[in-house]
Amino acid sequence: MIEVGFVLLTHSEPDQVLRLARVLTELYDAPPIACHHDFSQCPLDKDRFPQNVHFVEPHYPTFWGCFSIIPAAIAGMRSLLEKRNPPDWLYLLSGSDYPAASPDAVRSMLGETRFDAFIDHREIGCAGPIAVENESELTGFSRSSYRSIAYRRYCAVAVPRPSLKKPLAFPPVGRTYLNHPMWRSMLGGPFSNEFRCFAGEHWFTANAQAAAILVQETEVSKRLWAHLQTRESPEECYYHSILGNAPLRLSGDNLRYIDWPSVDAWHPRTLTLADLLAIVRSGAHFARKTAHGSELTNALDRICGVGLRNAEPVRADCVD
Fold first, then answer.
1. What Cα–Cα distance (Å) separates residue 159 from each residue in 162, 172, 184, 198, 208?
2. Residue 199: which of 244, 236, 230, 235 has the closest Cα?
3. I need a labelling partner for 305 at 20 to 30 A (CA). Which of 68, 102, 117, 233 fits?
C-alpha cells in the first residue's frame, strides 16, 4: 500500500492546524506529519497534537514571500525522508489546505501514476520571457502576465539603488531590474541553457525520489539557493527549477483545487460550500483555501470519510 506523508507550513490559526493534523491522522492511519510552525508569529500547544506529528525545531521565522519558507519546507521533508520507513509520497500543505478526496482514491491514483511530482510549473526562459498564446483569460499563475513577472523576479539582473523611503540606508534596500537578456549574459546567474528557470504555485506533491532531489545539496542547488535569497517570492521558483531540471516526470497539475477570482487577482479566493461540487468534480486531493470550521470543511469530511472510516462514505456523484 502507498504510504503518504505530509509537511505542514503554518504560522497562525492553531485550532485550524490541529484539525487538519487530526483529520490527516485519521484518514491516513497515523501517517508521518512534519509541521513547521512559526512560533514567533503565533503560539501553539504541541501537546494537543497526535503522536505521529512532530515539529521542526528550531523553527525559521517565516513571512509571505520570504526565503526562509524554503529551508522550513526542506527541513520538514528531510525529517520525513530520514525516518526508518520513509513515505512513498509527500504533500506540502499550508494550514488552510483541506483533504478533498478519500485516502483510497488518493493512494490508487498515486500508485498508478507515471509522474514523480505534481507541481504547477512553467519555463520562464533565461533569454527573456517566453510568450504563450491564448492566455489572456487565464488566472493565477497561468495568466499571460506571470511569465514577465517571474522573469523580473528570478532572471533579470537586480541592481541596488537607494529607496525613496530610506534613501540613506546602507546597503540600499531598493532595487532596479535590468530586464534585457544582455545584462544576464554579461553578469551571469544560476540560469542557463543547461539549467533552466521554472516557476509557479508553491504547494506541490512529490514522490520519495523527487523529494530526495529537493533536499540534496549540490553546487547547482547552492547557487540557486544563494541567488534566490534576495529575490521576491523565491518559494515559487526554487522547487520548480530543481525538479524541472532533474531527470523526472512532472505533471503541471498540483492536485489542489484553487479558485483565482479574476485575471489580475494576486491571491486565491477562500472557498465556500458553493464550491463543493466543483471541488469533487476536479479530482483534486486538497482544497485551497478553506476557513476553519466552515460548512465546506464539514462537507469535505463527509466525502472523505472522516468519522466514518468504518461506514460507507458519501458518493461523489450524490453531491448536490
1. 10, 10, 12, 22, 39
2. 236
3. 117
Cβ–Cβ under 8 Å, residues 133 and 212: no
pLDDT at position 187: 59
Separation CA 233–CA 64 (nearest Å): 8
Compute the distance between CA of residue 39 and CA of residue 10 in angstroms, rounded to an integer: 9
Residue of 188 and 270 predicted with greater confidence = 270
**Cα torsion at 300, 304, 307, 309 (round to 10°)?**
170
pLDDT value of position 181: 65
d(C-alpha 17, C-alpha 8), whole Å: 8
51-68, pLDDT tens digit by residue? 999 999 999 999 877 899
Phi, psi for 202 (deg, rounded to 5) = -65, -45
Residue 175 confidence (pLDDT): 66
- Structure confidence at residue 143 (pLDDT): 76
Phi, psi at residue 253, to the nearest 5°? -90, 115
Which is more confident, 25 or 232?
25
Which three cell numbers, joined as nine digits, stand for 201?
504555485
How does pLDDT run across 92-104, given as a tens digit for each residue? 999 999 999 999 9
In 63-136, where does DSSP find H-type helix?
69-81, 103-112
CB 243 within 8 A of CB 210: yes
Mean pLDDT of 284-306: 96
pTM of the model: 0.87
Burial class (CB in 10 A: 0-12, 13-18, 19+), 212: middle
Amino acid at 62: T
Q: What are phi and psi of 215, to 5 degrees?
A: -90, -10
Q: Residue 53's beta-bridge partner residues?
A: 33
